[in-house]
């Protein structure tokens, strides 16, 4: 436990200093000299702390009104408080190892011992108190985020926020050339992994497992993809022979689904990041798919487009990620309200640029993994107001629920 506590404290401190969670975990795996079990424990603790950081921070502020000068010591206390809240280990075990961890950090172990032992005595009352009097602690989101969701979804805002604090499901997309959803569920059951069918191409496991344990994963039978994200291919529905552009394609999940579902299309997969373009190619190799993969900026077609229009365009634009926050709990604390305005400007530039690449009577699917209307309905309304040749055939807001994350889809046609 000592190693995983220390590692998680480092990761949490890095995130609270502004680093994204996934890179922080990767860096820890590369430099932390941890066993596989310790790495898994570190990841579990880091995600857990960030899911309920609002509550943990309020509790720590009550127990220690003067913020510890060491960011890593503060993070260690947050990790230990999370463990005590979680209840997986005996309280004395958590406290004793946290004291040893503080000693390793050359920090005040007596201070750590006093704070954590006080929490074990006052836990029930203290938790109730901070939840009643502090909305950030109650909902585990920053105030601006809570306000946005409350204004956007006045009837269901609390359920939307609560869903974002849950553990995400593991959903698989079935490659139809290899198997069927029913057959793969039976195969999973044979190996002790209960799952159920969501659709003809989607299967959800009752408990997540590493991809290495999934039967025939490396042979391309299945891909990990949220059920909500799998809707993109059906909305776009390209015909055989059509030129199709996936404009913000990395890591290639939606591109792969398009090629699996419509193998006779001519697909171009575009992304601005050369490293992430490599992940598209790796995905295609595993799935035994082929497409034209290009490095380029969707907001500047002059650098990559040859002028031949596309019949279908998938624009899965950069966004706040507010619909997938349960997969990225760090985003709640790293995002700022001002970021939304910057993102909507970027989305507008991409949408305007891609529209020029769309053929007459062609269709463009605008997609975000956001639940904020400024990135979704308001963005499309503003675009339609300035483009009389555009019509919206369909738009839908998927809110996060147990079966899928939050997504927005708007299908536009150039008339």
Task: Write a brief structural summary.
The chain is 49% helix and 16% strand.
Secondary structure: elements and pairs:
Layout: H1 2-16, H2 21-31, H3 36-51, H4 53-63, H5 71-86, H6 91-104, H7 109-133, H8 135-139, H9 143-152, H10 157-163, E1 170-174, H11 181-190, E2 195-199, E3 202-205, E4 222-224, H12 231-236, E5 243-246, H13 253-261, E6 266-271, H14 274-287, E7 292-295, E8 310-316, H15 330-334, H16 337-355, E9 358-368, H17 377-386, E10 390-398, E11 407-414
Parallel strand pairs: 5-6, 5-8, 6-7, 8-9
Antiparallel strand pairs: 1-3, 1-4, 2-3, 9-11, 10-11
Helix pairs in contact: 1-2, 1-3, 1-5, 1-6, 2-3, 3-5, 4-5, 4-7, 5-6, 5-7, 6-7, 9-10
Task: Give a verbal description of the structure.
With 415 residues, the protein is an alpha/beta fold. It is built from 17 helices and eleven strands. The strands form two sheets. The protein has a seven-stranded mixed β-sheet, with helices on both faces. Helix 1 crosses helix 2 (21-31), helix 4 packs across helix 5 (71-86) and helix 4 packs across helix 7 (109-133). The longest helix is centred in the N-terminal third of the chain and has 25 residues, at 109-133. The protein is globular. The mean pLDDT is 96.
